[in-house]
Records
---
Amino acid sequence: MNTTTTGPVSAPIPTVRRLPQYLPVLEEQAGAGKTSISCTYLGQKLSLEPTQVRKDLEAIGAIGRAKVGYSVEELIGGIRDFLGWNNTSEAFLAGVGNLGTALLGYGKFTEQGLTIVAAFDSDPARVGKNVHRRPILSIEKLPSLARRMHVSIGIITVPATEAQGVANRMVEGGIRAIWNFAPAALTVADDVIVENASFSISLALLTRRLAQRSRRTSK
Amino acid sequence: MNTTTTGPVSAPIPTVRRLPQYLPVLEEQAGAGKTSISCTYLGQKLSLEPTQVRKDLEAIGAIGRAKVGYSVEELIGGIRDFLGWNNTSEAFLAGVGNLGTALLGYGKFTEQGLTIVAAFDSDPARVGKNVHRRPILSIEKLPSLARRMHVSIGIITVPATEAQGVANRMVEGGIRAIWNFAPAALTVADDVIVENASFSISLALLTRRLAQRSRRTSK
DNA sequence: TAGATTGTTAATCGATTAACAATC
DNA sequence: TAGATTGTTAATCGATTAACAATC
């Protein structure tokens, strides 16, 4: 049985955004002993149309059974495969402030294919210490060590003013994907992936909706 | 001069997502003494088409001058107004773990219209202490205090298993918008805004792109 | 002036939703 | 069986991109 099919090469970005959100619902159902689940139910939980859920599941190559639904376990495995969460990638984190420390202590990343193997900082007072069982090294050492260890992901949690410099060092070290938590527009080579995860993006969506509503209701 | 125009009531969600990302570029330009900026330049910085930038700026009601561009200061003000960042909203944070502590220590929220006034936790060992100059109170007190203080935003940084219970308490306290960092699909009343900011969404976008590329290159 | 840039309309592209037959 | 649900095609909707006149 071929469980390592390539699957569809591309999926809509909104689909990729929704896929991880199905997982908690699926895991809850699995925990409750349920073996199958319908698009109607999943849609209800995430406030989505059943048809949209079906399209999303089609994108990961899932196959359901009429009247029954989809296998909960197959969906969990299928989504995780699709997102690459069943293969571990090693990451370096730069910037051991509040947020960097929180990410180093976040327990879920191992289930999501991400292992932060070392942290880096420019502050000599921090270098040499350990945070959540990972060593803090000098930022200077990042490029050579990244290259030697074939680290593929760089996480940026430094202040915005230092983000570009850190990104440069990461690219210099052969890092192919940057998870950028700094509110800064990074300039990198075309073949380097940058995913901006700054709080401001998410907060903007929240405050905008709030501002819009209070404007309506105050009329 | 009327500077408090209502502006367009609705904008595409992708636009709202991009708007906060223009700000660091604009602030950098302002810091360098530049008074005007073009869509071409902004687009280059964020890897967007100039036309798309123009559409985004049109959404906030910005007006530029041919050959010159847009006023940097006006754009900064316009974006912040549009996002509601010029009016402060008070927030309660529930869950003083690694992430909750990091958010309490995050300095940028004040510039983004967000003030976290108190933190809540269910762990008696934490209750009574202060974190980043905010008191940690018992989660039991959240509903009544939220109602009394007219707090409009709730930030959830508890484990996924407790997220729904905390959301219920927030809604009970009259909170109208929830910024949810827990990987959990919350069920709330229709008129409550939920913005999911769990790391998994952003990480999925990163790892998916990485998995897709390594699949291509390994062919 | 020439040409860079805005503002705006139209065309294209892509995602969501609707419709409906197949099926378990 | 009846009806809930999938799978799939078509229709709709909305966002992006292209085109181009206006203009400073």
---
Amino acid sequence: MPELPEVENVKLNLQALGVVNQRIKAVDLRRKDLRTPLKKELKMLLPGQIIRHLERRAKYLVFETDDHLLLSHLGMTGSWRVGSSADTEYEKHDHVVLSFESGLKLIFNDPRRFGIFELASKAKPNRWLKHLGLEPLSSEFHAERLFEITRAVKAPIKSVLMDQRRVVGVGNIYASEALFAAGVKPTRVAGRVTRAECELLVRRIREILRKAIQAGGSTIRDYRQVNGESGRYQNAFAVYNREGQACVRCGEEGRIRSKVIAGRNTFWCPRCQR
DNA sequence: ACCACTACCTGAAGGC
DNA sequence: TGCCTTCAGGTAGTGG
């Protein structure tokens, strides 16, 4: 997916469009399900509600309205784009349309339909949010904390970074990139990563996520900013999808290796990462 | 309890 | 050109 920087970028784009404080006019569900059913309650309960607040939690967009929470997850291929009430043409895989009284329209497109669009209660813990771990850009995410949560773990450090119950927002791309930047090999048993390395990992993860947000995220294929433009951070990848290429740090030809870890293709430089 | 692996779905790219 | 296989920003669920 869309990892933290992409979702954060969508949030910032929507905030800049002035979605907060707008009143929802209609919710158009153009099919019956994404990863989970698109329930009729969305159509019944949302019109008339004002969006009071919009935040990102992990890789979820959380719209807070007067009486509800509205959760949006982009899955692997989801994107929100702007339209206006004048638009009546839809594209393939446009599954949800949120219309506002101002005339603004938001359209959710998701070819693979791994995304989620659901109502949640303000009062009760939500099934999607309740097991989420540390926000990497918050102060709760620091070297000592990462050191603690990795101690008993025998799985590779990359799995911990991607495990949303431990650290949220870091997905397959940024895990490889952060491990490279910190000089830590993705296959290292998490429990054997040193304090000093945790220090470096925390710093690099933060740095890379921030830079990626500033670049509008990474577009591999489907992800788009809300204005339809691609992100730009894919141009800054040091290792992701660069198997066999020269390492940007040590310069040696044919250095970047890849291997499946935690079910996902993983990239690293065996010379720069230990 | 932990960890690796599968399934969910569509479309693009590569091999033949 | 076309058919077949593989792979892709995620993650809940499973089975060892």
---
Amino acid sequence: MPELPEVETVVRELRPHVVGALIKSAKFAIPRQLLPQTPALVSRRIRGRKIVAVNRRGKYILLKLDHGTLVLHLRMSGRLYVREGGSALDHERAWIELQPGARTLAFRDVRTLGTIQYYPDDAEIPALRALGWEPLDTTVAPGELRDRLRSRSMAIKPVLLDQSIWAGIGNIYASDSLWVAEIDPRVPANRLSLRQCERLTKSVPAVLTRALGQGGSTLRDFMSPDGMEGSYQKHFRVYDREGEPCSRCHGTIRRIVQAQRSTYFCPGCQNRR
DNA sequence: CACCACTCCTGCCCGC
DNA sequence: TGCGGGCAGGAGTGGT
């Protein structure tokens, strides 16, 4: 489901509801989501701890506790929200009971691909080690991008999904960022010109910042903790718009498959050197 | 290393 | 209506 704008929206909305809360108990329905840890172990570790901060790194959600960190990833279909009492919704997979109040931090995940792990030591969170730049960062130098792409002969679009370049770009914003930068998604990453790298270092934060301002995108079922749907899907440049006219050159938007994922682009104008 | 195919899941939508 | 195939916002793995 979510890419960076959606995850950042979740984090911002969750923060006021959970920071300062005490974890009374925790239950996990799908042990696979915690591997290599176990529900019993994670429950034991986080019970009685206080949530002191909610942060994000790439698409990972970091619930910082007074001892250790709970690291969650929503993957394709995960959602995270606080319920004031009430009964569980369909497809909830984890429940963290908070105090004070009868509040539940619920993790709903239809496809169960999301992950949950506990790390006692903040310095040693393996998933975060290899992550690249934050895509909202506007200070990435074009030359540094070109360096980072030097060894990559694959087409630029699937390379943008590699979280060690920028951490947080997913399939939607990879296509849209390349449209804004007027770059053909099929160009080998290591053949991008310095000008193209410069445009990309501008378009990535621009596109993601704009999407964040709209609360992200809601395609099938993204919903923020406060129950709001994102609205950036109304502003997609090319993503999910196969056959529609390009807003820049009025060419027809195409869909192709790269590395088993859909790519959308305008062949008419995404070819600037 | 880089790359590619494949895998984990469930649900929805489309065409027959 | 029912069924099968394809597709979905992600990322880790194992083989070459």
---
Amino acid sequence: MKIKLISYQSPNDEFPPLIKKLNYIQPLAEEEIVALMKLHEYSAVIDEGTVFLEQGDIRDRSFIVMEGWAYRYSSLENGNQQVINYYLPGDVISPFALVMPKVTYSVATTSKLQVCVFEPDCLIKLFSEYPRLALLYGWMLGREDSSMAEQVVRLGRRSAFKRTAHLLLELFHRLKVIGINDENFFHAPITQQLLADTLGLSIVHINRTLKKLQKEGLINLSKQKKEICLLDIEKLKQIAEYRIYYLDEIKNLNTTNKSSLADIPSRSNVMQ
Amino acid sequence: MKIKLISYQSPNDEFPPLIKKLNYIQPLAEEEIVALMKLHEYSAVIDEGTVFLEQGDIRDRSFIVMEGWAYRYSSLENGNQQVINYYLPGDVISPFALVMPKVTYSVATTSKLQVCVFEPDCLIKLFSEYPRLALLYGWMLGREDSSMAEQVVRLGRRSAFKRTAHLLLELFHRLKVIGINDENFFHAPITQQLLADTLGLSIVHINRTLKKLQKEGLINLSKQKKEICLLDIEKLKQIAEYRIYYLDEIKNLNTTNKSSLADIPSRSNVMQ
DNA sequence: CGCTAGGTTGAATACGCTCAAAGATCGTGG
DNA sequence: CCACGATCTTTGAGCGTATTCAACCTAGCG
């Protein structure tokens, strides 16, 4: 797939979601933000329902999601698919593109997707000038690792009911960090088929499970607009055995950890 | 858990498995190997069946497995466990320790485990001197990402039979890279209970599945010594839809990718 | 207005689970 | 050296969660 690049203009003076996310866990210096904007120079818009990275492709670019959702998946011979993870605004698609230019899993969009595109070389430059950003990037990778680990636990050892509740909570939480949801509902541009493929269930069963969650007063789905409303977050967390802390909480560690992010100078004094 | 450190002595002049693994995908320069040995200064031995990292702990060390197996897992309220991934010789436990000192998932040993222990600060020094090693470390993280993604696919969309075959093939392959298995069999220090917890199955069912694999002449288990013999690797791969390439194969990319690992000077000329 | 994609429901089936009990294997201590 | 307990493996039987198949419904769009 050929992607047409245009220059990126951040809308109404807001920071791009990646910066929001990083700033959420570790307040950024002015110059770090400026430096991060270098990853946001070129953008592209990709239609809904497009496979824009295909297993086996050689692609040495990374993408930052600005708006919309994408997902990484694997197709099996019998036509089944398994969604591995979602890319929400602020997430980096192909974070290892520099060292693993061969795409191992396809990536597709669930909605119109706006991304910024950068060459991984930019990262190297960025990191050598701002080593703390390298660590923050590492934090982000670690967070994605945890998130995928949780997907393993969901699929391996949770019932359909708990699985579904758990996923909805995670999506809600991730959107909250970048500030694009309200008190208790969010816009989820996904079909039940995709949910089924995420949770390793059949479409029939995910439909029944969602119905059950609604009947029990735990969630509310507004069909047309694809809004999901979590009616009783505490109860959902309890049902799903949802542990929030795998997603953030580097914040309070600065004092307990001798070489924490806060101690590292944001600007390197290495001579180039 | 308190871990007692001793100095590390590599046995009979062999390279440590991490170096073997990195060298396998990208031949290392002499001085890079020397530098990597700095991560191997201190070692520790941990008994079989020990939980040595516990969810919630604050630990800012990383570990390199020298010998034996460990695994990362999550415990649920009903007593069930889900294994997320295995750490085999050459694998790094807690690769994100510097930026995520809070342990998100417990790690335990399946056998007597010898590890080398390093402070993540060492990594920073290492990477600033030898930037290519930073990329190789990144490659390793990307590989682990793929491996966990495959675990998601196994659990979500494969039958017990295919799942089991697939996992055995992956373990076999990973051991092969570090050169500790023979033509078609390997030593796997795991119980059926652990296999069940890895594959999201009950112990009864994993037992029956292994029996079926044996009956069909695909594998052979020597109970006492925990050796697993793959009798027909090609057929197993076909059954499991096993795709090897998510595990290695950076090798041949040097020509197609303009900023490949091979092009990057092994020694940085950055002034410290 | 009719087509298509997505959502809903019922019924039969199957894969994998739970419960239960018995066999192996190994380490330990008498 | 054997007996005992602990851990792991094996097997049977009944059950339940989730699947498959099939049909119908609904909303959006040309």
